[in-house]
Task: inverse folding
DNA sequence: TGATTATATGCAAATGTTTTCATATTCACA
DNA sequence: TGTGAATATGAAAACATTTGCATATAATCA
């Protein structure tokens, strides 16, 4: 396993290392969504969503379909969901300590709830 | 799935978004390794390895065991390998276009081979 | 104790990512 | 054609990560 391949894989995981992108992918589990729908679901502004989508596109994680002025996004390979599910399993097994998560949740409760 | 959880998961994937950290984890598949062994395997300098290990520690991905002045690292939850294997599968299915990988490999061939 | 080996940490420079705001493009329809 | 709606892009500021170097700690051994 050489350096180039590891760099390549690192770039792939980097795609998944932003909360908005994970949220987008989660919403796409149910099927394709338009930019506007995602914008509403994530409560983030248009430009932010569009730029995160651009990243997902550049990483070939999503496909697009245009209908009039509306662009629909969908995940290219549903196996990405399997990956996310394995990650979820790892959480459930407390690789990341329960404590740390609780602290973050408490922290978020104290601060006003923020959109993406 | 709220914002805090997505942030938490994003941080987790971020752990895997660096080539040196992925290389370290791959080497740990075979069992625990000392910092020095990893240093040799990755051809990176001591401080760099140590700081990447510090990240993996802070993310609770690895455990350490001290023996004299030597510190041995091992992965805490082997399920992380399952995650990496699913990622590999996704590559094999060409989620990431074969073309892009070839370009990067060619690029790396042109430039002199670099350590981590 | 002093020297040596193994590992960790602090800090500043270099680099990369994210956000925000403004503007551009594309399509539809009056 | 002109206007509005949906999406994309550019660029600068804010922020985070990575690297390299110097130094610190901790254990071993002469």
Result:
């Amino acid at each position: 396993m050489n350096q180039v391949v590891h760099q390549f894989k690192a770039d792939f995981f980097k795609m998944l290392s932003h909360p908005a992108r994970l949220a987008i992918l989660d919403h796409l589990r149910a099927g394709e969504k338009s930019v506007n729908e995602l914008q509403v679901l994530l409560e983030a502004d248009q430009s932010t969503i569009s730029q995160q989508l651009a990243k997902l596109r550049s990483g070939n994680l999503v496909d697009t379909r245009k209908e009039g002025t509306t662009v629909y996004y969908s995940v290219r390979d549903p196996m990405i969901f399997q990956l996310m599910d394995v990650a979820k399993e790892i959480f459930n097994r407390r690789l990341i300590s329960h404590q740390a998560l609780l602290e973050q949740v408490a922290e978020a409760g104290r601060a006003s709830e923020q959109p993406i």
Q: What stands out?
A: DSSP finds six helices and three strands in chain B. Chain B touches chain A through 50 residues (CB under 8 Å). Residues 79-92 of chain B form the longest helix (14 residues).
